[in-house]
Design brief:
The protein is of the alpha/beta class and 409 residues long. The chain has 18 helices and 16 strands. It is globular.
Length: 409
């Protein structure tokens, strides 16, 4: 949706006579979609309690984005600048979860991955092409992603693992001097939530003797939900309701593109049969902490589930390329693959056995982050370095996840 009206801005000189706090450093949070937004929200507690900093938000290229992103941004309660206004404003730092819109701003930028890191394969097709000969593979670390006109598009490119730095050295050496291996703040928050498993289980409505099965899907026709429209119905029908609580987590892009109304309509039968559906904004990490089993595809939520200690049954798509050595590729190699034609409970037991005999949770955690527990400190140090002011004296917070709030059935 397009909004050409400008708003009163605490970061613009025209409205400074309204300000109570003046001479603050301005931080623009660049949110092109909900997935980027939820990851950037993990960073904002690092700026809390600092009266020297003013944070505002924007949606780049807003007329080309989704209503869901507009609603997500305004739900945060911050100032949301229309994109034309943001482009003409001056900031001290831009936090970006995607490269979209980053070239139109002159402020120093910190680029953060919004999934399990930049170093994984994605299928890309030129505009107008379909899956086929014109499609090709790329990582998020190529020069087409990170460079423009001979310079890097961000002053700090955040990597989750030293492995990504090695990949960057091969595919885009000029960007090495901006790379910061910070670890994975999403994983750190998930880890901080593990002691509260019982609280999350109760919030999901699980009884003490029930197993929680989280069914998750990324987006695209290659995803679990794209390949199996009856994904949730199949799982619910295969599990006794008194012994299993089935929870669903769909990629925010599915919600954004098809609409919350359509998702609830498509899943109406599963919701009536007991599916606990999580909203797109948050809840998936709390559900992973609560889960005994995860049934999922190549999306990052499945990988985080393995790191949280759940057993994983993979909806494997051999047509989806995975970069060897990445968490998703290792998971695909060492976990059983879901067969919807066979009884489900024995497959869940096989997934339990694979987890318990391979040490997979520890291995996946090590692949997700080479700086475990350190992401907050490294990210805050990087942000304040770009802002050119000293870090606050208080400790860096690592907050557990809030209780999940399922979509009303």
């Amino acid at each position: 949706m397009t909004d050409t009206r400008w708003v009163r801005s605490p970061v613009g000189p025209a409205d400074q006579h309204f300000a109570t706090r003046r001479d603050t450093k301005s931080v623009l949070v660049l949110v092109p979609h909900i997935v980027a937004g939820t990851r950037l929200l993990d960073l904002l507690p690092l700026l809390e309690a600092d009266h020297r900093v003013q944070v505002v938000f924007t949606n780049p290229e807003a007329d080309e984005n989704w209503q869901a992103n507009h609603d997500f941004l305004h739900a945060q309660g911050g100032i949301v600048l229309p994109w034309p206004q943001a482009r003409r404003s001056t900031f001290n730092l831009v936090l970006a979860g995607s490269t979209r819109g980053i070239d139109d701003l002159t402020a120093p930028a910190m680029l953060v991955p919004h999934g399990g890191g930049f170093g994984q394969y994605r299928t890309w097709s030129p505009p107008g092409a379909t899956d086929g000969p014109r499609s090709r593979l790329r990582t998020g670390l190529g020069p087409d992603q990170l460079m423009r006109e001979g310079r890097t598009r961000a002053e700090a490119i955040i990597l989750v693992h030293e492995r990504e730095r090695d990949l960057l050295a091969k595919v885009c050496p000029p960007a090495l001097n901006t790379a910061v291996v910070a670890g994975d703040i999403a994983l750190d928050r998930l880890t901080a939530s593990l002691p509260y498993q019982d609280h999350y289980r109760r919030a999901l409505g699980a009884a003490d003797d029930q197993h929680i099965v989280l069914v998750t899907s990324t987006w695209s026709p290659r995803s679990a939900f794209g390949r199996h429209p009856d994904l949730f119905d199949r799982v619910i029908a295969a599990l006794p309701r008194e012994r299993y609580r089935v929870v669903g987590a769909l990629h925010p892009q599915i919600w954004s593109h098809h609409s919350p109304w359509q998702i609830r309509s498509w899943l109406a039968g599963a919701l009536r049969a007991g599916l606990v559906l999580l909203p797109p904004e948050e809840g998936w990490r709390a559900a992973l902490v609560a889960a005994d089993h995860v049934i999922g595809d190549y999306g990052s939520v499945t990988t985080y589930g393995a790191a949280a200690g759940a057993s994983v049954l993979l909806d494997h798509n051999p047509d989806q390329p995975l970069l060897p050595g990445t968490p998703a590729a290792v998971l695909a190699e060492h976990t059983p693959h879901w067969d919807p034609r066979r009884p489900l409970i024995p497959q869940l037991r096989a997934a339990d056995h694979a987890r318990d005999t391979t040490g997979l949770p520890t291995r996946i955690r090590r692949l997700l982050s080479s700086q475990p527990g350190q992401a907050g400190q490294i990210l805050r140090r990087t942000m304040y370095g770009l802002l050119n002011i000293p870090e606050p004296g208080h400790a860096v917070p690592v907050s557990p996840m809030p209780l999940p709030k399922p979509v009303p059935a």
